[in-house]
Amino acid sequence: MNKQLFIKPLFGIFLIWLFLTAINFNKAFHADDTFHLIAAQHISKHPLQPMSGLIRWENENPEPFYKANQPSLFFYLIAGVAALFGFNEIPLHLFLSVFSFFSLFIFYKIARLYGSPMPLLLTALFGFTPAFVVNQNVMTDVPVVCFLLAAFYQLLLAEKTKKKKHYLLAMLFLTMGVFTKYIFLPVIFAVGIIFLVKRQFKNLFYLLIPFGFLVLWSLWNYWEYGGVHLLGRSARPFYGRPELFWAFVTGLGSISAFGVLVFNKFTGYKLNKRFVYLTSAVSLLLVVAFYFLSNQYDDQIRWFLEGLFFVNGLFILWYVLKIGFNKKLNKNFFSFLHTDDGAIFLFIAAISLFLILFAPFMATRHILTVVPFILLLVSKTFVFSKKIILNFTLVGSFILSLLLGISDWKHAEFFKKSAAEIREGVPDYRTIWTTGIGGWYWYALKNGMKTYYLDSSDLKEGDILVLPKGVSQYRISSSLEVTLLAKLWQKTGPFSFFSGNHFLGLYHNNFGIPPWTLSRNSTDTIYVLGYLGKRVGH
Q1: Which end of the chain is more exposed for a tag (fewer CB within 10 A), N or C?
Q2: 3-class secondary-structure state, position 532
């Protein structure tokens, strides 16, 4: 009987997953995909030296992988898939979609075990979160979410069944997680606090599993390059933390349509059809107005949206804190930590504080790690909302995710097509030099372009220099005499109007750079220059 009842939810989960996969399965490699792919290529050749490969990324000269913030498990997984199917978009995106499916499936199981009144609706809100839709890239973030949810689910089962296997499985997922991204370190700490608060002292020994593997990893690091990767992580100076807090709150607000449901709770569940019709009409009018005004008022539109996102994010965080420190519901904070709500609250706090205090930058993919836990914590209030408000929130989140997903797909494709077009239009005997990072760099190298270095590249008269404005980031010698041969830019339209690619906000938001905006201006321009020789006097 229970299995029969589960058929419909499973079908719903499958449809959500199908939507995520359909948008992204043939998406061009994008943003940090290139770093991960190059790291995986290195591992394919040198499996025992994962951190020693060189890449030109944040600085002018190539640096070893251990200068980056990320451990290597995900690189090994990519290398394994590529060994079978090559470094191609479709098989690698389908591989990542496996993590997407299990993220949705496990989240649904958690919601049921947690006692959420509408687990499938909650799963849909999670699945249609814009950050979850857009970040189906060859990056770590979706696997991280999957490991986080799997670990939490096993901890819930362990608490309810007291079976050793669930504790061991939780530690397995925590270990896999920490070797994918160090954001799991505060999560492990949070689990330790839960064990201490509940006086489950024997359970603390389970934490020796992830910490033991971290020690082995550190010893491996020392053997490989004479340092410890965990201790060598770069981070923004402390004075930059307020700015990062702003980016965190803004990022959360930009991807959390369910803020409407939280606001509905604040109003005493008074939102009704009138609110839906009015909000829909105002939103549509603003979108139309911004469409025609965007060429002249891009900055004003961007600041308007950033303010709106910040208010929404701040409201959500306020409500999360209200649940944690509500004296009417909780006798004291320690009694609260004994509950499932308390465990979820600790996960939210641990991940959020780690991002704000230690992350080198903020991005929606980072914030995505706390979204499922926030959804769970506030979900018990959703049942009191009118059906029309629930549908409005779900549909709004779906539409926003769809538009941002299509826009991001088009932007990634622009770099792929442009690299191929430039190579095709230049005779083979002429060398093409380029700068840049992200997806552009991958396809530039794939099409035979050479990396330009300020001090060492020896250009010959007649060579071609290609500069993508948005992702170039490296200096060009002032002694170069060049002429403009061509200029390529991404054509804009209705499906690129909702854009997370202006300043790559979806992948690196900051004060004044919201995760997404509304703009008809091109997201990037690629300049094709002909080299004429050195300037006179140089």
Answers
A1: N
A2: strand
Contact by Cβ (8 Å): 516, 130: yes
Token output for 356: 């704000």
The beta strands (E) that lie in 363-461 are given as 432-434, 450-451
**Secondary structure string (H, E, C) spanning 263-311:** HHHHCCCCCCHHHHHHHHHHHHHHHHHHHHHHHHHHHHHHHHHHHHHHH
- Report whether 346 contacts 193 (CB < 8 A): yes
Cα–Cα distance for residue pair 95/78, rounded to 1 Å: 9
Helix (H) / strand (E) element for 481: namely strand 480-489
Contacts of 300 (CB under 8 A, 6+ apart): none
Q: What is the mean pLDDT of each run of 10 residues along the chain (538 residues)?
A: 59 93 94 94 94 86 86 95 95 96 96 90 95 93 96 94 93 96 94 92 94 94 90 65 91 94 89 92 93 88 94 94 78 81 94 91 93 94 90 95 94 94 90 91 94 87 90 81 90 84 84 90 89 70
Q: What distances in angstroms separate CA 242 from CA 66, 182, 183, 357, 523, one per listed residue?
A: 28, 22, 20, 9, 28
